[in-house]
Amino acid sequence: PTTLRVPGPARDHTERMLAAMGCDLQVADHASPTTVQECRLVPPQRLRAVNVDVPGDFSSAAFLVVAATLVPGSNVTLEGVGVNPTRSGLLDILRAMGADVVRHNERVVSGEPVADLTIRPSQLQGTQVGGEQVVRAIDEFPVLAVAATQARGETLVRDAAELRVKETDRIATTVGELRRLGADIEARPDGFLVQGPTPLRSPELIEGTGATVHSHGDHRLAMALAVAGLIAEGRTVVEDVDCVADSFPGFQDILNRLGRGTA
Question: Are 146 and 213 in contact (CB under 8 A)?
Answer without folding.
Answer: no
